[in-house]
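hi support,

uploading two proteins for the ticket. first:
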Amino acid sequence: MGIDIEDLCFSYKDKKVLRNINLHFEKGKIYGLLGLNGSGKTTLLKLILGLLKEDQGMVSINEKNKLDYKVDEISKYIAYVPQNLSISYDVTVLDFILMGFNPFMKLFEKPSKNHELEALELLNQMQLSHLKENNLSSLSGGELQMVLIARALIQNTEFIIMDEPVSNLDLKNQRHVLDKIKEISKLYKKAIIISLHDPNLIKKYCDYTILLKDGEVISHGKSIEIINQKNLKKIFDMPFEKIQSTDDTYYFLGV
């Protein structure tokens, strides 16, 4: 059981964006997507979510073809943390978290008292209780990212997809958010698929890495084996220097 991708291809008009993608994602693991802008990372995530339809191939969720699900049904299995959030109306953090129950409620049904208690407990666990009455528009980048993750968690799905969740955060908040993501994956046995730009963060936080270049999977496997100078040069077309510290290995662009 998990998410399986078989011979997946996708094009925007005449431009091939993804070619012959074959991957498997299982619960309790974090999978990192690494590649240049335009390599196909976001497109792959949208195909899994059902926001785009593949030209050929198949995405299966728990051994059932994605196309056999309605889009709103997929939300019962996969939660989504977008790279950017645009909301044109005021909404409090608590009300926004409660929206995570929407896939499981009937049309016009309102969250129950039990839903609210569950949301408050989650906010407490994630140390966000002090923000519950704040509007989303008043939050810092790090706070907003944690709230987006909380809403994804309240859906209680088996899989969570995150598109560049730390791209706009400072170094301290990057670590804070990624520490929480790793904790969530292990504690709740969820499969998390996350796109990142930093190979060092991928190696530190992701169990497995998928390298994408020009719409193709160049390599995939355990992060500790995949993140190396040869592979990084291959996908970024630039040399990387390897620096060994007392407790870990880091990679930086060469000069």
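and the second one:
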Amino acid sequence: MKSKLNQIITLFFISAVLILAAGINSAEAQSRHLTAQNIGLGGGGTAYQDLYHANFINPANLMINHSNRPKVSFGLAGGIYTNAGGNLVNITTYNDYLTNGRVIEGTVADQMLDQWFGTQSTDMRSANIDVGIVPVGFAYRSDSWSLSGASRVRVLGSSGYSRGFADLVFRGLDSDYFNEARAVNMNQEFLVYNEISVGYATTVLQRDRMFGFAENVRLHVGAAPKLVMGVNYTRFNLNSTLRIQEATSETNAQINHDFRYTIETAGELSDQLEEYNTLRESGAEPEFGDFIEPTGSDFTGIKGTSLGLDLGLTLEMDIDNLSIFNFGFFNGDKKVRVGLSLTDLGSVAIDDRNRSFSAGENFIWNGIHYDQKMVDNEFGGDDGKYFESVLKDSVGNDIYGNLVSTEHSSYSKGLPTMLNFGTHLLLGKFSLMVDAGTGFVERGTNSRRAYVALGSEYRLINRIPLRVGVKTGGHTSTTYHAGTGLEFRNFEFSVGVASSAVSEKHGAGIGAAWSGLVFHF
């Protein structure tokens, strides 16, 4: 019976926070805009991504490639991408320890979690996601200026856990390990918003010759202001320490959980949590999970509006006069482009029924009073159901469910701002691209850890782009990229993918993008 009780208590302490987070998540449906082109080339694009996608990467690029297509471009389902990963997604460690039947305890658990999370209980590891959909986009090009418009739906999410939390998951309530206080922390954040972006670019400087080798030198500048419409926001943050005192001949085992958690949310989910809390405060015993039910407005309703901005400049020059490149597949137009952009300036506003719910206590638990009569009469002699009921009622609702509700007029969450620099060397059918950048706001897959992306493209029969790339830095380990498609003067379609080969140090990353159907006329 003692073993069964320990299993139930362990599962309860893990589930007490996971149920909250899972309930919240179920109510939701180097973070830069990805396209089928740039994901195949390492995820850059600062000096080469054109059309309406340039609004989100470098608006100045609306002025490039004018001779390649007619004046108007239109995209239907004009781009879908997903990018996920992070240092929590450690496939190497998972395969080393969890796929070969090893027993995860003692020294083996130490080795696995040291490799996965680090040696301190406060060390955090996270998994992140960025999903974007461009339902529609257009671009119009004239000789001296370009205009574009695009809508984008975006979902940014992150889920992080401390080493101490992982110890609890894999060791359970091990009094030998938790005989000193360990950090059991968790952070989860999900942000959903829509954007309507309008981009404008023009050429502000033009020289016939510069630098001794460059001809037809042009400096393009662009800006893309956007209306940002907040759809949903939820954040769950748990900070706690857990300590377990083993039972002796004179004292019972003691669990000390000093915790503070906060839920920030809005809209229907906020109302559902408020209803739960109101019933609890009235003396009822509501079930937390019964009140968390996703609704359509969680994914479609607009809960606030704000403004954002993307800015960029691109220096473009012809190098056809350099005879060193006049051979083989280098025959054709030869250009050098250098781009600089500052993207996702601004914030997302959420101002619809905003509330935060918090609870905190230095909880000391000395065990369960075992009532054999109640076990027999109310639980049919089932010890497990009795323990579960006592934990749920006396601990779950009274301790962890003892929420304090606070109303807020508005949430303002920063967009994943990035500074990007890129170059593009075009030599006929062959291209070489290099990008570098860093994030300022860590949200979704955005990271303050700088990244470098290298890409190369060869245009087979000038209609089939063959793309490869590599990216290092950012929120994951090194990722390898590839893409292809069909590109005609009046129609194009392309796809791209990315994946990590190793994941031990900075975690795995995966990504994919589809161009949608893009027409030119």
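thanks. also noticed: DSSP finds ten helices and 22 strands in the chain.
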